[in-house]
Amino acid sequence: MDGVLTAGKYVDWGVVSISVTNLLIIIAMVVVFVLALVLPFPHPHQPADRDQEERS
Amino acid sequence: MTALPQDGERRSWTVGVRERTARLVPAGQILPDRQPAYVASWIYVFGVLTISALVVVIASGLVLALGGALWWHTSELGHFVNSVHLWSVELFFATMVIHLWGTFWMAAWRGRRGLTWVTGVVAFVASIATAFTGYLTQSNFDSQWISGEAKDGINSIGVGSVFNVLNPSQMLMWHIVLLPLAIGIIAALHVLLVRRHGVVPPLDDERNEVTS
Amino acid sequence: MTVLHRPRVHHSRTPDPHSYPTRSYDLVKEFTIALVVMTGLCLVLAAVFSSPDDPAITLAGWAKADSADVVATATGELAGTTTSATYGAPYNDASEGQSVLGLKLQKWGGARLALSSADLVLQPLHGVSGDPALTDALGAWQAMSPEDRTAAATAYADALAQAPDGAPAQVGPGPYGPVPELATAFLGLARSGGLEGSLTSSGTFYGGDETRAMLLLSDGAYLEDRAVAEHLGGDQWGMMNEVGNYPGQPWMWLYTFWYQVKPFSTSENADAQVWLLMMVLTLALMFVPWIPGLRDLPRWIPVHRLVWREHYRQR
């Protein structure tokens, strides 16, 4: 049980110290967020129906 | 429309609850099949992705419950299910935070949707608490270290005797019963509010918009 | 049901979403697709990356890995100098504990989980039979006054601290009373596995509450040494981290950040202070819709023009 335990890989920058895994997760989240904003959203086959406004 | 109550001025509780419930969401909006045309961006999928991740978290949790709190230490299947539980939690938080970023930049609280925003933040905080009790429930080195550290934070504000992170039998119950129930209720309220008010219209469609 | 109205500029109202043109969409299908995608993603990630399971430190394991630490910790419990012995609420009244803005929250919580740190050592030892030397040592300890006990245990603790590697065998004779026998017997009990379960707080057949065992373990240095080696320490952003290269808790970044910087990093009340600060920030996040400036950020930084670009183009 007492094998030598080594910590994972960490990136240190000033006071910040973050694991490579966590950093990748955060970067991936930002990339996904940006992609979600800029990637074109597929247009449906029927155009938006202006004559049938939903009344509720 | 329901018939008016027959006997005098007495109002049936059942009728009262039924009518209140029916008014919670506009007719046809609980499961609508049309949405405003401006809902046309990939950012909008992160709410439903968060709910999907929560479903996987709960499903994997249910399987872990079948085997018991210690099952995953000695079973390969149990360990795999534990891994599904861990990764679904990571994805749950990732999609929830992206959803938060999106709804913030869309100022989605506009048009009397402030409570939707509030329930979202409460869901976020409750999720952190649930994840925390989950880490305490691992019955391994992580649980030992995390409980030892966290006790100092919780004791420092005087609630350590009521919420004892060094007591796994208590933390387990919070993790699998109390907190998931709270999250379920809060998430349901959150979605209900979205269905009630509809997806927030684009910014700048009104000059001098009231924000909330 | 709701009256459809054209948005009137001078009434400055967020438009009714139902006043816009609509398109059809399949909510149930969208949710089903999302669920299938999410499930698949989780299964793949679990299969490829798995999850960590570093075994818990047993008291026997601790004794075998760092016997000097066990002896020093047991001595400290008897001397009343360990972290748990001087903690304050909820374990005892030895300290006022932390406060923030003059609010002595820790003390107000009260010692409702009262326990004796010395008993973390003495109670398991009292359970040992067939060891006359230990029985004598326990008897001698019982007969001593509190002041003599503290003096003997403190003297032995100091001697251990000065011995090479803290090794009890390197400590010469001194005014230690029965403390060396007690500490050594405790180490032997730990090594044999006899301590496992004996400190569960329930004190009956069924365990479940590890408060006392965890306090003993936390009073030693070994647990923290292991954690720091795994980059889980408090001043290593540990709250965010996991053992090895496994994903941690990135969402805890702001909570743990404060512990890395002054004044919190050097404050005795850091826990209470950080808690209060995070409470305030959480409330700020919750009430964004009503906070001027904060709620206007989406207008000043128009990320939304990307979201609704089709709509603005068609308008």
Describe the structure.
The complex is a heterotrimer of chains A (56), B (212) and C (315). By secondary structure, chain A is an alpha+beta fold. Chain A has 1 helix and 2 strands. Chain B is mainly α and 212 residues long. Chain B folds into 2 domains: 42-106; 108-201, Cytochrome Bc1 Complex, Chain C, CATH 1.20.810.10. Chain B has helices at 13-24, 45-67, 71-74, 76-105, 114-136, 141-156, 168-197; one strand spanning 34-36. Mean pLDDT of chain C is 94; it is low at 7-11. Helices cover 50% and strands 1% of the residues of chain C. Chain C starts with 21 loop residues before the first strand and ends with a helix. Chain C is elongated and about 90 Å long. Chain C has 15 helices and 1 strand, in the order E-H-H-H-H-H-H-H-H-H-H-H-H-H-H-H. Chain C has a domain at 59-227. The chains are: A alpha+beta (56), B mainly alpha (212), C mainly alpha (315). Chains B and C meet through strand 1, helix 2, helix 4, helix 5 and helix 6 of B and strand 1, helix 1, helix 4, helix 9 and helix 10 of C. Strand 1 (34-36) of chain B pairs antiparallel with strand 1 of chain C.
Walk me through the topology:
The complex is a heterotrimer of chains A (56), B (212) and C (315).
Chain A: E1 10-13, E2 16-19, H1 20-38
Antiparallel strand pairs in A: 1-2
Chain B: H1 13-24, E1 34-36, H2 45-67, H3 71-74, H4 76-105, H5 114-136, H6 141-156, H7 168-197
Helix pairs in contact in B: 2-4, 4-5, 5-7
Chain C: E1 22-24, H1 27-49, H2 59-65, H3 67-79, H4 105-109, H5 117-126, H6 132-143, H7 146-162, H8 179-191, H9 211-219, H10 222-229, H11 253-260, H12 270-286, H13 297-300, H14 304-307, H15 309-314
Helix pairs in contact in C: 2-3, 2-8, 3-5, 3-7, 3-8, 5-8, 6-8, 11-12
As a percent range, the share of helical residues of chain C equals 40-55%
* Model regions low in confidence, pLDDT < 50 over at least 5 residues of chain C: 7-11
Label the structural class of chain A.
Answer: alpha+beta
Number of helices of chain A: 1
Strand content of chain C: under 5%
The overall pLDDT of chain A, averaged over residues, is 80
Q: What oligomeric state best describes the polypeptide chains here? A: heterotrimer
- Proportion of residues in β-strands of chain A: 5-15%
> How many strands, which pairing sense, and closed or not: the largest β-sheet of chain A?
2 strands, antiparallel
Order of helices and strands of chain C: EHHHHHHHHHHHHHHH
